[in-house]
Amino acid sequence: MPGAEGVAGTPRVTGIDLLRLALVLKRQLPRIAGVAMVLLIRSLFWLARRLGSERASAVGGRLVRTIGPFLPAHRTAMDNLRAAFPEHDAATIRALARQAWDNLGRTGAEYAHLHTLFDLDLADLAASRHITVEGEGHFADLRDDGKAGLIFSAHLANWELPAICAAKFGLDATAIFRPPNDAAAARLVQEVRRQTMGGLAASGQGAVFAMQGVVDRGGHLGQLIDQHFTRGVVVEFFGRPVLVNPLLAKLARHYECPVHGVRVIRREGTRFHLELTPPLDLPRDAEGAIDVQGAMQMMTRTIEDWIRENPGQWLWMHRRWRPNMLPKAKADPAPPADRGTVMPVEGPAAVS
């Protein structure tokens, strides 16, 4: 009978050995895939830097504009665009979706150049090759007024630039960010942000306390507020209800600090215009306190106006509208059966 060795003394591979190998590979596969992804992303990052900002942005836009329409998220983008712009024909909707993919590809490639892309010289604002700024006086006011301040923004054009602009103007600002789902991409993006921006706070468990700490010490907090937030308040966005994170409105209500909006417009290639609004006159309730839902509606309406000006520069592939996640309306209680008039008396109710 055959023993533990096969032909010519070669160890025999049993089913148990194959099972053990499969289990080892299964345990190690995420680590192997993670290492491969790190190498791939860093290689693409190196290539983007070698190409230079203009060529990298153009290549990134062309690549994602070509691949994007074949991805599942393209259906989301098309559905969102059709619902937001029912007056547009199919060709216009397709063109806007391609523009959105192009902008996303350009923004991804531009991460490799954030350290040089924002080339604003505060001594000569007109000398920049890439950036023009409107509302620079508001940045100075926020920096010098000795008070805390809040800034909201959206995923428009290259949405990383406002945080770099705040640091350039010497503003003590902390940007709230949501890390990418891919761990390798998250690490690289974090490295780039730390080189070019001020403070950073990752959204998630415990982040609210860190954000309150920023405002408590008179700092400034910036947040992108145009994505779905499950525990948010309901506001209207392009005529449909959505859930939005109410954090900025709650902080404004508690600390009575100014709230500004900031947006980026992509002019052409890697040339951008950045605009900081004056402080918003937020709605208040009967007691004079800032109304949280009303304040978030005003900020969301501002973002909608920005998007309508440049619809091809927003992140339409995000599932912003999720009707199944909206809070259910409370049903009115059924009227009581007609059993006479209930008269309140001391003790048990009497029926006449």
From TrEMBL:
InterPro entries: LipA_acyltrans. It comes from the Bacteria. The keyword Cell inner membrane applies. Transmembrane segments: none annotated. GO terms for molecular function: Kdo2-lipid IVA acyltransferase activity. It is found in: Cell inner membrane. Its EC number is 2.3.1.241. The keyword Cell membrane applies. Residues 327-352 are annotated as: Disordered. Keywords: Acyltransferase, Cell inner membrane, Cell membrane, Membrane, Transferase. It is an enzyme of class 2 (transferase). Pfam families: Lip_A_acyltrans. PANTHER family: LIPID A BIOSYNTHESIS LAUROYL ACYLTRANSFERASE, LIPID A BIOSYNTHESIS LAUROYLTRANSFERASE. This is KDO2-lipid IV(A) lauroyltransferase. It comes from Methylobacterium goesingense.
